Amino acid sequence: MSAYDAIAELYDPWSRTVTEDVGFYVAEARKGRGTVVELGVGTGRIAVPTALAGVPVIGVDSSPGMLDVCWRSGETAGVSHLLDLRLGDLRDPPVTERVRLVTSPFRAFLHLGTEEARRQALAAVHRLLEPGGRFVFDVFAPSAEDIEETHDRWLEREPGIWERAHWDLERRVLTLRVRGPEAEAALDLAWIPNEEWRALLAEAGFEIVACYGWFDLRPYAGGEDSVWVARRP
Ligand SMILES: C[S@@+](CC[C@H](N)C(=O)[O-])C[C@H]1O[C@@H](n2cnc3c(N)ncnc32)[C@H](O)[C@@H]1O
Question: Where are the beta strands (DSSP E) in the chain?
Answer without folding.
Answer: 36-39, 57-61, 83-87, 99-104, 129-140, 154-158, 161-168, 173-179, 184-190, 207-212, 225-231
